[in-house]
Amino acid sequence: MSLQKTVVITGASQGIGAGLVKTFLDKGYNVVGTSRRVSETTTFDRAARLELIDGDVGDPETAKHVAQRAVERFGSIDVLVNNAGIFVTKPFLEYTIEDFQRLSATNVEGFIHFTQSAIKQMLAQTSGGSVVTITSSLTDHPIAGVTASLPMITKGGLNAITKSLALEFAKDNIRVNAVSPGVVDTPLHEKNPTEFLRSLSPMGTITAIQEIVNGVVYLTEATNITGEVLHVDNGAHLGKW
Questions:
Q1: What does the alpha-carbon distance between residue 108 and residue 157 come to, in Å, rounded to a whole number?
Q2: The whole model's pTM is what?
Q3: N or C terminus: which one in the chain shows less Cβ crowding within 10 Å?
Q4: What is the pLDDT of residues 112-154, one digit of tens each?
Q5: Which CATH superfamily is domain 6-234 in?
Q6: Shortest CA distance to 174 belongs to which of 128, 217, 218?
Q7: d(CA 129, CA 45)
Q8: Packing angle of the helix pair 149-168, 110-125 (nearest 10 deg)
């Protein structure tokens, strides 16, 4: 059993998730990272404080297995970062119910499975904890030409439940927050024209992965903040520009 704090990170194999793993390890946390094939990644040095577990976040058994392994190896779950998510754009009339089911399984059901498992363990530990979820600034300010209506049903729901859970578990010292990015320099956008991506925020910039990671770490360690949706989006949530 470790006296260090333990963080569980979903969607840990690349992009923001990989950045989170590296930064939390650098800060001295024990890290349990999960994604469908995270064990195959060569991104991380295999540190003593790192456990990688393959699994689909939409499967409730994955959350149970990850929570069990985190406690067995490190003795606690102190932080959960719900980073796993999928994003599909197409005109609303072209979305299918299968699209919605796939989005919901990862973005919403995955959140429910992992957050329930983590909070149950945090309550048993009686030492509080932190949950941070990655959402999207498009929930606040849609952008013409970015047809993401169905993904935003799921991401908007995550913003709403963040506030509800923050209030529900405030007296248990379990804080629940979210980071709401705009366009981030991840593999998701590697084929998109840079100038188009720059046009999607009033600052005309693309957010680096580390900026999102820094927002997550800030909310994780800011002991007086709960129910916050922190926009790290170069002003994209503000309105027309």
A1: 8
A2: 0.92
A3: N
A4: 999 999 999 999 999 999 999 999 999 998 988 889 999 999 9
A5: NAD(P)-binding Rossmann-like Domain (3.40.50.720)
A6: 128
A7: 27
A8: 10
